[in-house]
Amino acid sequence: MPEIEFDPVDSIAAGAVGEPGQRAFYIQAEKDGRILSVLVEKQQVAMLADRVRLLLDQVETQFPDAGAETPAVLDADAGELRGDPVPLFRAVAIGIGFDPARRLVVLELHERPVADEDDDEDDEEEEDDDAGAEFGDAGLPGDEGEGYLARLYFTAAQARAMATRGSAAVERGRPPCPLCGGPLDPSGHICPRLNGHARHDDA
């Protein structure tokens, strides 16, 4: 499997480009002038933001001295996407963990679903990810060929900035229909609760 490793990243970001209803979501990392952009789903960004916050809360409990060092000062645009992202691949599975020895968050982006079995080698390499989690759409069909694996290391401060930007991008999407909860389009919404009739919001 082709592997890409940024250890550590110079920056890490999550967000979206485009207009509501036609947006594309990305996770983006930069190191030494090299930029990696990975296409993801909106739900993955929302879930990643939640998992990052849960992970860091767990880290503070399990490793009280993890934040003892002076935190780095981040730029005002920390966590924001840079330029017009050109994705290298689409991530169908995402794993997140924490390396207590280095005080770094570890993010893995898999082009194909993570296998549930025969992961003995991965277990040996990822002993430090006890506080981690894996998520994604494992039901998506994968090609028989090998896909990319991106492994990114970054600080807790960078992780929180990414989570904040990612959540903000998700919340800037189309407002939900008050009847069915589905996203409202500017041109109208075919609501199943109205027997297929379009619902227009003129306000």
What does this entry look like structurally?
The protein has 203 residues and is α+β, with helices and mostly antiparallel strands. The longest helix is centred in the N-terminal third of the chain and has 21 residues, at 42-62. Helix 1 packs antiparallel against helix 3 (156-171). The protein is globular and about 55 Å long. Residues 117-130, 137-144 and 197-203 have low confidence and may be disordered. A five-stranded mixed sheet has the order 1-9-7-6-8. Strands 2-3-4-5 form a four-stranded mixed sheet. Strands 10-11 form a two-stranded antiparallel sheet. A hairpin with a 4-residue loop joins strand 6 and strand 7. It contains three helices and eleven strands.
Measured distance between first and last alpha carbons: 52 Å
Structural class: alpha+beta
Number of helices: 3
Sheet with the most strands? 5 strands, mixed
Taken in chain order, the helices and strands follow as EEEEHEEEHEEHEE
Radius of gyration: 19 Å
Backbone shape: globular
Give the neighbour order of strands across the main sheet.
1-9-7-6-8
What integer is the average pLDDT? Answer: 79
- Helix content estimate: 10-25%
Number of beta-strand segments = 11
Which range does the strand content fall in?
Answer: 25-35%
Low-confidence stretches: 117-130, 137-144, 197-203
